[in-house]
């Protein structure tokens, strides 16, 4: 049994964990930092399975953590990707109402975006048609966000890992955490067949879909649990008679933290449609029966039923409009609200599927909308790192570091 000592442990090598390691190593090159991930390679979960959209910061109510970090985070990540020569499509984004009743939300989003410091403006039907000739706006108006861009998430992750290794950050990939002693600041690890004890100065829990479970070991977050919502995508058949050069998003239901089925062009020339937001039967239940957690699924169904009963946050509307988008005809109907000419045979199944690490607050019976940071003994826990945590990661990491030192001094 070997003994290792490190100043900082980052548990979870997703975008949040790696951005934390990156910002920490930038501040103090003498810090010893160890990133631990249970998977043999980085990017196996949300950070490698998302839409790759660097959001401009339009949706989030001013004052929330999301609002505080999204605009800055997007600018910094974009500049970093450009500096690294990574593929990036600077294509902007159009947000269009699917029904005329949703037109009023455009003003609300415009106000929020401007208050958050995002560049955004209203456009008329003529400009909408110039930007998205094959799209539809129910009211004749839409929002235009010129700063939104799209990256290839896995390539971003791989380059970040490379830069971290060059800075001397250690990675323990494929490692299992067998025990945690928060008071002793120690982890018991199994890695490459060897057991070790890792002593740390501070631990950052950035384990995404598992973050609430780790937080509970530190005596935190007992009021909440994670509900996994699956995001399935379809690819647009390249032979389909459409020309999408920008993102096309619906006006979202602001009661739930999902942005709705949208059209996203990728830097590699492909066009994806999605993602859905359907209940998953396990936190890592990406396909079929893989990763099903029967107990969790039962609890999840109970939580969904309770949400339906209370109708907290307009939950019934979500259930009616989004919960069944795993069925192709219903997915197609949602997509047709934005792209009326779309037909079933234009959609090719996509390999990409992601699961949102969505936190559920059991006391209020609501889906938590904002990021949540919890502070425990020599540890900081990042809960609810849902969208736009990828976009915001650099600025979010700075905020987490600031709050963690405030909390521990
Ligand atoms: C379908 C979908 C589309 C999205 N689209 C966008 C988008 O366009 N733009 C955007 O900004 N955001 C988007 N998001 C959100 C974004 O992907 C996440 O907010 C972000 O990737 C979260 O990063 P993370 O590091 O917290 O989590 P993850 O990437 O899930 O990383 C967590 C890591 O922790 C590891 N881990 C878990 N448990 C343990 C353990 N016990 N020990 C060691 N390691 C462990 C996992 O293996 C994983 O590598 C989307 C999400 C989904 C699901």
Description:
With 409 residues, the protein is an alpha+beta fold. It folds into 2 domains: 1-52 and 152-223 and 368-409, 3-Layer(bba) Sandwich (FAD/NAD(P)-binding domain), CATH 3.50.50; 225-361, D-Amino Acid Oxidase, Chain A, domain 2 (2-Layer Sandwich). It has 10 helices and 21 strands. The strands form 4 sheets. Strands 1, 2, 9, 10, 11, 12, 20 and 21 form an 8-stranded mixed beta sheet that branches. Strand 20 (372-376) and strand 21 form a beta hairpin. Helix 1 (15-27) runs parallel beside helix 5 (153-166), helix 1 packs across helix 10 (389-408) and helix 2 (65-84) packs across helix 10. The chain is globular and about 65 Å long. The two termini are 33 Å apart. The model has no long low-confidence stretch (mean pLDDT 95). Flavin-adenine dinucleotide binds at residues 11-17, 36-39, 44-47, 49-53, 55, 177, 206-210, 231, 275, 354-356, 385-391.
Briefly say what this structure is.
The protein is an alpha+beta fold. 31% of the residues lie in helices and 28% in strands. The chain has helices spanning 15-27, 65-84, 103-116, 125-131, 153-166, 211-217, 294-310, 315-321, 328-336, 389-408; strands at residues 2-11, 33-37, 53-54, 88-89, 93-96, 121-123, 142-145, 149-151, 170-173, 176-181, 186-191, 194-205, 224-236, 247-250, 262-265, 271-274, 278-279, 347-361, 366-367, 372-376, 379-383.
């Amino acid at each position: 049994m070997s003994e290792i000592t490190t100043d900082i442990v980052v548990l979870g090598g997703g975008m949040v964990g790696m951005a934390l390691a990156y910002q920490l190593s930038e501040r103090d090159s003498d810090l010893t930092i160890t990133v631990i991930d249970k998977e043999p390679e980085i990017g196996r979960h949300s950070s490698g399975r998302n839409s790759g959209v660097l959001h401009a910061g339009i949706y989030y109510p001013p004052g929330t953590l999301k609002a505080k970090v999204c605009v800055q985070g997007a600018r910094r990540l974009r500049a970093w990707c450009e500096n690294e020569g990574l593929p990036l499509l600077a294509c902007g984004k159009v947000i269009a109402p699917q029904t005329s009743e949703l037109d009023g939300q455009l003003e609300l989003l415009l106000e929020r975006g401007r208050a958050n410091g995002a560049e955004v403006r209203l456009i008329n039907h003529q400009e909408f048609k110039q930007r998205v000739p094959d799209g539809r706006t129910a009211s004749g108006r839409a929002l235009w966000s010129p700063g939104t861009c799209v990256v290839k998430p896995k390539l971003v992750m791989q380059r970040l890992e490379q830069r971290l290794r060059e800075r001397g950050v250690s990675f323990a990939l494929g490692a299992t955490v067998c025990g945690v002693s928060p008071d002793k600041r120690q982890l018991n690890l199994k890695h490459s067949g060897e057991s070790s004890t890792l002593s740390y100065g501070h631990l950052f829990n950035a384990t995404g879909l598992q973050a609430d479970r780790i937080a509970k070991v530190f005596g935190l977050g007992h009021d909440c649990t994670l509900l996994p919502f699956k995001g399935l995508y379809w690819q647009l058949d390249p032979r389909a008679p459409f020309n999408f050069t920008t993102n096309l998003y619906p006006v979202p239901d602001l009661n739930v933290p999902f942005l709705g089925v949208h059209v996203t062009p990728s830097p590699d020339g492909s066009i994806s449609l999605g993602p859905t937001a359907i209940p998953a039967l396990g936190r890592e239940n990406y396909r079929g029966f893989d990763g099903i957690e029967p107990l969790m699924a039962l609890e999840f169904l109970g939580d969904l039923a309770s949400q339906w009963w209370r109708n907290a946050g307009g939950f019934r509307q979500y259930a009616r409009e989004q919960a069944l988008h795993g069925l192709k005809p219903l997915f197609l109907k949602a997509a047709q609200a934005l792209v009326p000419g779309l037909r079933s045979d234009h959609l090719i199944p996509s390999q990409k599927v992601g699961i949102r690490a969505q936190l559920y607050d059991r006391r209020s019976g609501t889906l938590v909308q904002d990021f949540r940071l919890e502070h425990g003994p020599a540890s900081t826990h990042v809960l609810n790192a849902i969208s736009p945590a990828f976009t915001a990661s650099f600025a979010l990491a700075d905020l987490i570091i600031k709050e963690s030192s405030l909390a521990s001094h």
